[in-house]
Amino acid sequence: MIADNCLKQFKEDYRFRLEEKTVNLYILAVNQLLAFCEKPFTEMNAKDIRGWMSSLESREYKVATVSSKLAGIKLFFKYCIEEGFLTKDPAKKIPIPKSEDKLPRYLQRDELLQLRQLVKGKVEERAVIEVFYATGVRLMELVDMKKEDINWSERMITIPNGKRKKERIVLFTRECAVHLKAYLEKREDSQPFAFVNTSRTGPMCSRTINLKFQGYTKKLGIHLTPHTLRHTFAAHLAMKGMPLECIQVLLGHNGLHQTQLYARLYHQARKEIYDQWM
Question: Is the entire prediction scored with pTM above 0.70?
Answer without folding.
Answer: no
